[in-house]
């Protein structure tokens, strides 16, 4: 498998408006609708995919296998915009490591390190 196009420093960015469907308001309190941690993690994973998947060898994709140091450090209300930036920081054979930061209006709301493996797509 040729991985010459995959190099540390590649980045992927998502810019998303938080919707009610992205929140979990278990208490039903007015004004408590904020971005949930699982949805923030989903955005982080999508930013990693954005950073590298277009440059993978034909017939290959990536699958996540680890999330380290995930911290959801500030709330983001429904209607606010979240920017998630992932940077590829390491390539070890078919294993990719990304550093990720999520922000709301320039304020950090979350960080994580994510690892993905490059694998062949199995056809029918």
What does the model show?
The protein has 124 residues and is mainly β. The protein has a single domain (11-120), classed as Roll (Thiol Ester Dehydrase, Chain A), CATH 3.10.129.10. It is built from one helix and five strands. The protein has one helix at residues 37-52; strands at residues 11-17, 60-72, 81-92, 95-104, 107-120. The chain is elongated, with a radius of gyration of 16 Å. The mean pLDDT is 93.
What brief labels describe this structure?
single chain, about 120 residues, mainly beta, Thiol Ester Dehydrase, Chain A, 5 strands, about 45% strand
Shape: elongated
N-to-C SSE series?
EHEEEE
Radius of gyration: 16 Å
- Would you tell me which CATH topology applies? Thiol Ester Dehydrase, Chain A
């Amino acid at each position: 498998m040729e991985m010459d196009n995959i190099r540390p420093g590649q980045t992927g960015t998502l810019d998303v408006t938080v919707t009610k469907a992205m929140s979990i308001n278990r208490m039903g309190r007015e004004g408590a609708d904020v971005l949930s941690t699982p949805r923030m993690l989903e955005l982080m994973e999508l930013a990693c995919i954005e950073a590298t998947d277009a440059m993978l060898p034909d017939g290959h994709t990536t699958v996540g296998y680890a999330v380290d140091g995930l911290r959801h450090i500030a709330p983001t209300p429904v209607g606010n915009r979240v920017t998630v930036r992932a940077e590829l920081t390491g390539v070890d054979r078919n294993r990719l490591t990304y550093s990720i930061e999520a922000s709301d209006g320039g304020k950090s709301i979350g960080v994580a390190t994510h690892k993905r493996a490059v694998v062949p797509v199995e056809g029918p």
